Amino acid sequence: MENEKNNNGIKIITGILAVLLVVAGAFAVKLYNQEKDTKAELTKEKNLVIANLREMNDKYDVVIEENNLKDTELNEARDRIQALIDDINEKEVTITSLSRYRGEVFKLRKERDFLFAQNDSLRGSNRLLAMRVDSTSYELEVQRGVGDSLSLENDKLAERVEIGAALAANKLKAVGVIERSSGKLVENARARRVDKVRACFTVPQNRLAEAGDRVLYVQVVDPSNNILGANERVTFEEETITYSKVSKFYYENTALDICENIPPIGDSFEAGVYKVNVYDQATLIAQTSFTLK
């Protein structure tokens, strides 16, 4: 009788363990499927962002080709779009980076509307006006989003305000200069004579941005891939940049011309191609290059 009771107890325990194993297996499968669905949704949204950027790039190509435009703000804007496409393709998309990329798409569309409106007289038609994207279309795009799993719903308003207030940098130009004893700067392309690199750009009008003290980061990379100037790092969330100089200024919602002078590493510059980038926090907003002989 006692053996029979023991056998019954073992059977009960065995049954309970079997049920627990089944439940644990089902839970593991559910978690795996959720992770797979999230990755698939992220990939889908990444492809949508890239498609939107390529569509904008194509429209810039049409306007630039039809008007035979060279070295204009339209060309610079198109280059920034291509740079963003390359950046997205090179990196693995996360919830945070996808949110930032969607914000960049909106900012680039707003810039496109402004630049296309400036060139509307060259087109002689109203076709450009149809490409304007207002806040309503942006709201619909955000709502499509990546679903509740991306937790974007609570940040929509703050994100729109931040994107709309972002600064841009246009007409970026960099040259080598000789610094006279009088303080006068003379442009020169000979590496052995140049004293500093002078980078100049324009911060355009932005009626959505608040007036106040602002900061941009100028980065100059020499032919040996060294960062000139301060060569210091600054981190914004998950992104870190190394800058040559911090450009501090007071912004009053009107166009502002800014120039920064960056010294060499050591006593002289080497010959070759120099790259110049301007960042708003960790976001690349302008880039150019020049050559010293």
TrEMBL record:
<protein>
    <recommendedName>
        <fullName>Chromosome partitioning protein ParA</fullName>
    </recommendedName>
</protein>
<feature type="coiled-coil region">
    <location>
        <begin position="39"/>
        <end position="94"/>
    </location>
</feature>
<keyword id="KW-0175">Coiled coil</keyword>
